[in-house]
Write a structure and sequence with these properties.
Helix content is 6%, strand content 42%. With 160 residues, it is mainly β. It binds zinc ion. Zinc ion (ZN) binds at residues 47, 49-50, 52, 72, 78-79, 81.
């Protein structure tokens, strides 16, 4: 698969040819890398009254705020107790956690946020990398065109 530059991704979106959900190979220069974060694909809550475990799934990009259930749901076999901060427990030991670095690629006009997950050393600032992901646009609040994109991958290669 040929790889695209950040500008080419934007060109495709401008021409309405871009099909969201396609696997795309992208190359670009690393502008910044975050420290290692721990992110969750899902979080488990246990009810302190009856012990029922409720699992909440998170969606990409995984690092945003998620909704805590309001009560221990009877329809899922729970006791119906309303939950406030003191009567349920977040079960990190049962939650689907993974390592995450957010790698920002940048060229003259466009930015791309790569959510790099798993046990992998991130690239360094200034390195050129190539990776595959399903990119999605992030609308810039002040510009109607897409100027920023994001996508997730568990691998990348350094270009030499
Ligand atoms: Zn309960």
């Amino acid at each position: 698969m040929d790889s695209m530059s950040l500008s080419q991704i934007n060109f495709l979106s401008d021409r309405r040819k871009f099909n969201l959900g396609n696997l795309v190979r992208i190359h670009g220069e690393v502008h910044s890398v975050t420290d290692r974060k721990v992110a969750a694909r899902s979080t488990n809550f246990s009810c302190d009254t009856c012990g029922l475990i409720t699992e909440i799934q998170h969606s990409f990009p995984y690092d945003e705020e998620y909704v805590i259930p309001r009560s221990c749901l009877k329809r899922k076999g729970g006791c119906g107790t309303s939950w406030n901060s003191s009567n349920y427990t977040v079960r990190d030991d049962m939650s689907a956690l993974f390592d995450l670095h957010i790698v920002t690629l940048k060229d003259d006009k466009f930015r791309f946020r790569l959510y790099l997950h798993g046990q992998i050393e991130p690239p360094l600032k200034g390195e050129a990398i190539v990776f595959e992901c399903h990119p999605e646009p992030i609308k810039h609040p002040k510009i109607s065109e897409f100027s920023e994109w994001r996508g997730a991958s568990d691998n990348y290669e350094i270009l030499v």
